[in-house]
Task: structure prediction
Amino acid sequence: MSTGKQAAGEAAAELVESGMRLGLGTGSTVAFFLDALAARRLDVAGVPTSEATAARCRELGIRLLDIDETTELDLAVDGADELDQRLQLIKGGGGALLREKVVASLAVRFVVIATVDKLVDRLGASFPLPVEVVPFARRPVHHRLQQRGFEVVERHGDAGPYRTDNGNAILDARFPGGVQDPTVLDIELARMPGVADHGLFVDLATDALLGDDRGGVQQLTNESTIDLST
Ligand code: 5RP
Result:
């Protein structure tokens, strides 16, 4: 599995050019991207989407950019928990979804890096949708999601209820059969009082690099699939 993640991460690092302002995602696939990026020793700076990514960038010597210092990024690179052929995503398995979505929204190009097995016909049929909720609204949102037909589990860490870098809770919400219409659910969740954000990324990704366990990489865009290994 890590071969596919590494292949995707390394392919994404090849897209970076000196002078670029980057969005730096979160997760184990992004870790390979950061390693490959650091090895290229380019003059770049990036907005990290989590404290963990910021810490890793400091270790690797990748220059960090404060989000207040920019209104546009040239390229954002991030992982995903699931994606479909239209490049709609479920993210937030690592709990960084809110900052990830803000950073992705600033990018001219947003490239998803993942393994091929994360490409699904319907989002949410196997991976639950993370919903980030301000602590005060944890119970009301939990209840509302249940009423809407979701099976909801509050995320826990080793030391009790999980908290994001923003101090919020995560409710992992599973809808039997998966998400029928990501666009409709995106709007519905965004309108729910107390929801800070959710893991559906609709119309944000421009392309995806999908690594396989032989080290090959396919590029997926809205229009086509290109095998980069041939
Ligand atoms: C973090 C995320 C990650 O990008 C997602 O969970 C994929 O992680 P990994 O690359 O470790 O499989 O959304 O919030």
